[in-house]
Amino acid sequence: MNREQLFYLVRNQFGIEPDYPWPKFPENAVLRHANNRKWFGLVSRIPGEKLGLTREGPVEIINLKVRPELVGSLRQQAGIFPAWHMNKEHWITVTLEGPLSDEQIVELVNDSYALTR
């Protein structure tokens, strides 16, 4: 899944457009509820080494809220990392470029949306 596919999903499923709150970081997009303004996702492009990856170049990620009791087991899956720049007890970082399937990413996005409602 790439960022455009993710934004298409969020637009069609929740009626939400990405928000770009930081002029200094124009690629960072926040996904937030229209009514309470709470975030349920942060989409960014970061250097792979920030996640401990050995590959060169940037990686497309999304930070998602999850139930604290699931954080440990989720982080054992390839493509899921401790949250980058977020509370690591409640948030995870997921690489959008795989190895998770689109369906797995959609499920995590849906859960994050529900948890922040």
From TrEMBL:
Name the residues that span the membrane.
Answer: none
A GO term, aspect molecular function: DNA binding
Q: Which domain of life is it from?
A: Bacteria
Name of one Pfam family that matches: YjbR
Recite the UniProt keywords alphabetically.
DNA-binding
What is the designated name of this protein? MmcQ/YjbR family DNA-binding protein
